[in-house]
């Protein structure tokens, strides 16, 4: 029998709250964290098609981190550290009592240290002084900077990995944590998704790709609207989610509180297109099926899907089509929601933040609303999408995450039963 794996701690930095309690309260209220971008100093916003984003407001790293940590890492790694710190506390996991080589760190990140990266390259070209480039430039901008600093801050000496598969990064990180524990490489994996890429260049790039919403610049809280007929693109977000993942035996040994069981995972490639999914939904449906197969769960047992649902015209319709293909008549009995409707698309952090929402839904029996679902698109219509909180016992749930490069991930979580 496969080693059972559970989730025992959660941590959040998000546009609707820093900390799990604040995040969950806002999520259940259906409150949007999408706001107007005032400027990209020194750039005015006039040149940008989209002018809104899910921004983490009032984040002062010194409130949460020792100054030597906060000052030497990029914003995305600061988010990762803060979320990890909360998750470790929430799990009551005391690292001094753990065998350090049995605790791993796996981080999902889409872009890496873009805040420092853009700043330093701009200064280099403007000032033409190569000797003035920040001495920590290279270790700060590398994609594995967050996983390294999380390990150093926590004392975790087990497997240390960074997964970068665009928007599916941290869902894959969660799946890799499951496999790491099942293969016996670790007893505990600190699993994190983090991104902070609301920067002049990255934002301009997504605008040029015409991937971002631009119809709701005057009404930012209305811009992210998955499955709605009025959607016109995704809204960039930022933040981090952290989950303490451990073997059931390890969790029982220390009498840990369990949010949910991590039961299955699938990773596939559509091998189709760098940006858009196959419109027939077949590959998304296959990914979900493979995840359920790995968990030993039948489609009819699924009660809830935390959808990828970015608010793009094609993506949402394809995901809804895939759900109908796989679940057939059961599709309308499944509760479906979109965490991105509240916080925007946090890129590499999206899977982890969705997993936090899914774990809380399983634990509390409450499924947060999908914001701005005002005019359901017939191409995306699923009976389980709601603008209100849904209350139900969740036996099994699917978390979907799909990324640029034809990358698909699906993770199965279920209610823990002794």
From TrEMBL:
Belongs to the thiolase-like superfamily. Beta-ketoacyl-ACP synthases family. The gene is fabF. The active site is at residue 167. It is an enzyme of class 2 (transferase). This is 3-oxoacyl-[acyl-carrier-protein] synthase 2. Its EC number is 2.3.1.179. Pathway: Lipid metabolism; fatty acid biosynthesis. SUPFAM superfamilies: Thiolase-like. Residues 2-415 form the Ketosynthase family 3 (KS3) domain. One of its GO terms (biological process) is fatty acid biosynthetic process. One of its GO terms (molecular function) is 3-oxoacyl-[acyl-carrier-protein] synthase activity. CDD domains: KAS_I_II (cd00834). Keywords: Acyltransferase, Fatty acid biosynthesis, Fatty acid metabolism, Lipid biosynthesis, Lipid metabolism, Transferase. Involved in the type II fatty acid elongation cycle. Catalyzes the elongation of a wide range of acyl-ACP by the addition of two carbons from malonyl-ACP to an acyl acceptor. Can efficiently catalyze the conversion of palmitoleoyl-ACP (cis-hexadec-9-enoyl-ACP) to cis-vaccenoyl-ACP (cis-octadec-11-enoyl-ACP), an essential step in the thermal regulation of fatty acid composition. It catalyses: (9Z)-hexadecenoyl-[ACP] + malonyl-[ACP] + H(+) = 3-oxo-(11Z)-octadecenoyl-[ACP] + holo-[ACP] + CO2; a fatty acyl-[ACP] + malonyl-[ACP] + H(+) = a 3-oxoacyl-[ACP] + holo-[ACP] + CO2. It comes from Nitrospira moscoviensis. InterPro entries: 3-oxoacyl-ACP_synth-2 (IPR017568), Beta-ketoacyl_synthase (IPR000794), Ketoacyl_synth_AS (IPR018201), Ketoacyl_synth_C (IPR014031), Ketoacyl_synth_N (IPR014030), PKS_Beta-ketoAc_synthase_dom (IPR020841), Thiolase-like (IPR016039). Pfam families: ketoacyl-synt, Ketoacyl-synt_C.
């Amino acid at each position: 029998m496969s080693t059972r794996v559970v989730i025992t701690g959660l941590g959040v930095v998000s546009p609707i709250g820093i900390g799990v309690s604040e995040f969950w309260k806002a999520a259940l209220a259906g409150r949007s964290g999408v706001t107007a971008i005032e400027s990209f100093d020194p750039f005015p916003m006039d040149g940008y098609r989209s002018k809104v984003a899910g921004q983490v407001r009032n984040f002062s790293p010194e409130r949460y981190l020792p100054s030597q940590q906060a000052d030497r890492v990029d914003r995305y790694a600061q988010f990762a550290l803060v979320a990890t710190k909360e998750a470790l506390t929430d799990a009551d996991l005391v690292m001094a009592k753990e065998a350090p080589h049995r605790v791993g760190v796996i981080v999902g990140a889409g872009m890496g240290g873009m805040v420092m990266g853009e700043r330093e390259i701009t200064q280099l070209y403007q000032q033409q002084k190569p000797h003035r480039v920040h001495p920590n430039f290279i270790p700060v901008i590398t994609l594995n900077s967050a996983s390294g600093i999380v390990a150093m801050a926590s004392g975790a000496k087990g497997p240390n990995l960074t997964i970068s598969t665009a928007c599916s990064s941290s869902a894959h990180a969660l799946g890799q944590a499951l496999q790491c524990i099942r293969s016996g490489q670790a007893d505990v994996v600190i699993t994190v998704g983090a991104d902070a890429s609301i920067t002049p260049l990255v934002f301009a790039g997504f605008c040029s790709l015409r991937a971002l919403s631009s119809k709701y610049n005057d009404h930012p809280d209305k811009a992210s609207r998955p499955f709605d007929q009025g959607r016109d693109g995704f809204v960039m977000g930022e933040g981090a989610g952290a989950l303490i993942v451990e073997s059931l035996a390890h969790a029982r040994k220390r009498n840990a509180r369990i949010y949910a069981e991590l039961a299955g995972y699938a990773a596939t490639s559509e091998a189709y297109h760098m940006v858009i999914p196959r419109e027939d939904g077949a590959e998304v449906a296959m990914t979900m099926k493979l995840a359920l197969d790995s968990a030993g769960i039948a489609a009819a047992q699924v009660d809830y899907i935390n959808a990828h649902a970015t608010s793009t015209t094609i993506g949402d319709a394809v995901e809804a089509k895939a759900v109908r293909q796989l679940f057939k008549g059961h599709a309308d009995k499944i509760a479906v929601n979109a965490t991105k409707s509240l916080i925007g698309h946090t890129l590499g952090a999206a899977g982890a933040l969705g997993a936090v929402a899914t774990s809380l839904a399983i634990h509390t029996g409450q499924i947060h609303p999908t914001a701005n679902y005002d005019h359901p698109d017939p191409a995306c219509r699923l009976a389980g999408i709601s603008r209100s909180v849904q209350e139900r016992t969740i036996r099994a749930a699917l978390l979907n995450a799909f990324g640029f490069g034809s990358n698909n991930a699906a993770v199965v979580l279920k209610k823990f039963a002794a």
